[in-house]
Specification:
Mean pLDDT: 86
Oligomer: single chain
Radius of gyration: 14 Å
Number of helices: 0
Strand order of the largest sheet: 1-5-4-2-3
Distance between the termini: 44 Å
Strand content: over 45%
Shape: globular
Number of strands: 10
Largest sheet: 5 strands, antiparallel
Helix content: under 10%
């Protein structure tokens, strides 16, 4: 049954435990015709950010879905308030990088704006935005 939502927090099943991935980017992929949250890789289109998760489900704020609030973003490089945040998968970490730092190269998406300063490994508050494709120099 289809439903409508007034806030784009989507509850999705997972195929692996994503509870340690709160604040990171996910992709949306079908498993037996059912949408599931999966870890994001740089060649994938980013779908949203994990707000909470356990071994079987994840609550996700969709980037293109009118999420009316802020989210915690896991940083993989330093960021300052006002920086655009882009999706990063370094091979070791998945999270967000900063337009003010740009320590990674290649194709990605801008997906949010930092509301506070932070360093790699920290969770900062951010505002989601509709995805903007970008190739880092």
């Amino acid at each position: 049954m289809s439903q409508t939502r007034t806030n784009a927090i989507i509850h999705l099943p997972t195929t692996t435990d994503l509870s340690a991935q709160v604040g990171t980017v996910i992709k949306l992929a079908g498993v037996n015709y059912v949408p599931h949250a999966h870890a994001w890789y740089s060649e994938d289109r980013a779908f949203g950010v994990i707000l909470s998760a356990d071994a079987e489900t994840a609550s996700v704020a969709a980037f293109d879905g009118g999420y009316a609030g802020t989210f915690l973003a896991k940083l993989v490089e330093p960021a300052a308030a006002g920086d655009w945040l882009y999706c990063v998968n370094s091979g070791a970490d998945v999270g967000f990088g900063s337009s003010g730092y740009q320590g990674f190269s290649g194709a990605t998406f801008y997906a949010g704006v930092a509301l506070e300063d932070g360093v790699a490994g920290e969770m900062i508050e951010a505002v989601p935005k509709s995805l903007v494709a970008y190739t880092m120099p």
